[in-house]
What does this fold into?
Amino acid sequence: MKLIIGLGNYGEKYEKTRHNYGFLVIDEFARQNNFPEFKLSLFSLLSINGDVILIKPQTYMNNSGKAVRAVVDYYKINLEDIIVVHDDADIDLGTIKEAENKGPAGHNGIKSIIESLGTKNFKRLRMGINNSFNLPLEEIVLKNFSKDEEFIILEKIDEACSILKNYLPSQPKDANN
It folds into this structure.
């Protein structure tokens, strides 16, 4: 079973902030791949389609590991089958980087997941949000994307969905095709 985690903060106040980039990607990925509506389960909004689980932790960013640990334990998910999608202030807006077995680099959501799982050995999709505002990081991640940036974000969300599709289990070909 595969687990794809989108990081963010729940609530209308945070909906369009840079820190919710992971939620935005997961929502679009669910839509593009016909996942059922997200349901509240323990600490997460959860959607299951075949052998793939999507979650959006509802514990706020700094406690994301609690939700991830609960889902990993309940569904007995192997660590190599986990990918986390999150914002990354160290990467320019419009850049996506895949990573594995890396430390949190100051990202509290990733730090929480590493602490809860006891390892950093999982895949990540790092979505660049830009750190050129000359503001403290806490303020940058809670800034909304500008109208100009939203066009870039929509394109990058679509690109991230294409990357995530590679993590889906192979589907058998329909015999009628």
